[in-house]
Amino acid sequence: MLRLSGNSINNGIFIGRALHIAVQAHAADTHCISEGEIPAELKRFHEAINSVDADISLDLKNSKLGNNDLDILASHRDILHDPELTKMVETSIKEQLHHAGLAVQESFKKIVSQFEAMSVESFALRAADYSDVGTRLMNALSGVSGTLPDNLESDHIPIVSEMSPSLVSKLAHASIGAYLCARGSYNSHASILSRALGLVAIANIPGLQEKLKDDDLLIIDGDEGKLVINPDEETLEFYAQKVQVVELLHQKLEKLKASASQTADGKEITLYANIGLPEEMAVIENLGCDGIGLFRTEFLFISRQNLPSEEEQFEIYRQLAERMAPTPVTIRTFDLGCDKLSPFGLEVPEENPYLGNRGIRFSLANHEMFYTQLKAILRASAFGNIRIMFPMILDAEDFAEAKHVFNHCQEQLYSQGVAFDSSIKLGAMIEIPSAALEADSLAMACDFLSIGTNDLVQYTLAVDRNNENVSRYYIQHHPAVLSLIRSTILSAAKYNTPLSVCGEMASNPTYIPLLIGMGIKELSINPAGYFAAKAIVQKCDRQLFQLISRFNFSVSVREVEQLIYRDLKHYSTIQE
Predict the structure, then answer these.
(1) How far apart are the C-alpha atoms of 495 and 31, rounded to whole Å?
(2) Of the four, 48, 270, 413, 473, which is 20 to 30 A from 168 by CA?
(3) Rounded to an integer, what is the distance from CA 40 to the centroid of its chain?
(4) Alpha-carbon span 357 to 463, nearest angstrom
């Protein structure tokens, strides 16, 4: 028996047999063609496009996905028919006399390399989508089938080097319940589809493919990111029982959908959801949540070489508002920085982008882009209950400057006779210590506030949350952080300004009782943890509020941990 660890892509437990699957493009012919062969190679290229298009259509038809998740697969058709890419391939055939396969390989390789070289994960992840389409095109040109192996059975656990959206769709259609991949990210399109389709998965296990043989008995523990290879009888029995317990707990939490989100002593707690892609809407709609507390808009910059237009943004925001109406949709304006915009020619090298021109600062420095987004949001507000939230706000003056631009956009649309919600609410994110310290003036100026704990912790403790070398200093419950949260709560209460928490703390069962006990009445959480959060809310009682009201937050980290892990533990523990 061997135990290995990796990164969980989707929670759950699955027991099955290993099966290696090779997913790679057929090698391209590197010999040059003659000028007389150009028409034939162009024809082969366009026939391959038609073939892959038909294959995508079949994937869409056979998929078990909801409409929004289908958009991920449909986006591959957009890549397939991208005129710029088509032109690149055709130019390679005509001018460099490349075979169609080599032209496709080189063109897609160039685009994929550009995305992979970007320091921001959301851009680098998009490389997988382009690589997927490129592989399908090259295989179509080579006559290689992209179907699954004939010996694949429902209890198999496919082992791949890297998962693609099209392969996820095919695995789900083949009733596969889990997979392992050597490389993968939680936020990739393949991972999003895996969660939507319920495939248990783990990625980034060192030496995965070399350590596994076909037909090895495997246990995938997606909850812990653990893999057990050829378990002994005792371990196998333990996990078999755990599968039953997880199923019972899932059934219990599902029953909470129709129940009220209120504490045991009757206090109403609003539970919003966070999303970063429109494709996640299918999951949100099944939760019955109180709305969307954070809709990240940076995805609009993924997989493109041009800035998103007003019309494109309007359609996305409109559909979101219509589907969630009458519940609110909080749209965060672009939380972008110069480090994220290299494809658009807007970048100015910065030594420390985290402390540079990002968030609302970048928007205010690029008025045309900011105007475009605000006008698109305003137009969409006529179709539902939209709120606008500005990121990286420094203080009330910073918010006032952003609001001035917003007012100008309103005036423009009004003069053009364009409909919008004239009472749309504007809010600010509290994610910089100065904003928390100036929370009194911000609470008076804003319609609502939202604490982004991820950055608040990072900036308060001067810790890069993505740097493993200092990860031990990234303490979300540090007294300094809690003091800033507490002062923000008091300021919001003073002016009756709605206040939510939308960072990772709001989704962490350990911190939910603490935040509610401190006076937070709105949480915006990750969809996967929604029902667990509701269960915790319903356990919170008068004793919790009394305990935290007497607690002195100007203490040591150890004393805070005693409060959280000892005194509040029974509130955050969910049992079947």
Answers:
(1) 73
(2) 48
(3) 43
(4) 19
Residue 47: what residue type?
E
User: Which of 524, 517, 525, 359 lies closest to 435, judged by CA?
Assistant: 359
Question: The tokens 């391939």 sit on which residue?
Answer: 89
Closest CA to 64 of 163, 162, 136, 168: 168
Phi, psi of 294 (to 5 degrees): -155, 115
Distance CA 445, CA 492 (A): 11
Residue carrying the six token digits 């009733």: 175
Q: Please give the radius of gyration of the chain, using alpha carbons only, rounded to the nearest integer.
A: 25
pLDDT in tens, 139-179: 888 876 556 777 888 899 999 988 888 788 788 878 899 99
What's the average model confidence in pLDDT over 313-319? 94
Under a CB-based contact definition with an 8 Å cutoff, are residues 157 and 18 in contact? yes
Beta bridge partners of 20: 159
In whole angstroms, what is the distance from residue 327 CA to residue 38 CA? 57
* Whether residue 165 has a cis bond before it, omega within 30° of 0: no
Residues designated as active site:
189, 502
The rounded distance, in Å, linking the Cα atoms of 513 and 498 is: 19
Kindly report the pTM of this predicted structure.
0.68
Neighbours of 335 (CB within 10 A): 22
Token code pair at residue 529: 């943890």
The DSSP output letter for 439 is H
Rounded to whole angstroms, the Cα distance separating 212 from 229 reads 8
Residue 272: both structure tokens together: 């919003």
SS (H, E, C) 225-275: CEEEECCCHHHHHHHHHHHHHHHHHHHHHHHHHHCCCECCCCCECEEEEEE
Residue pair 132/188 in contact by the 8 Å Cβ criterion? no
Longest dimension (CA), the chain: 85
Nearest to 226 by CA among 178, 266, 270, 263: 178
- Side-chain-side CA neighbours of 568 within 13 Å: the count stands at 29
Domains of the chain, CATH where assigned: 2-21+148-233 (3.50.30.10), 35-142 (1.10.274.10), 250-268+443-576 (3.20.20.60), 270-430 (3.20.20.60)
Whether 273 and 524 have beta carbons less than 8 Å apart is answered as: yes
* CA distance to 313, 382, 400, 406, 409, per residue, from 422 (Å): 19, 9, 18, 11, 11
Instruction: Look at residue 443 and tell me whether its pLDDT is greater than 90.
Output: yes
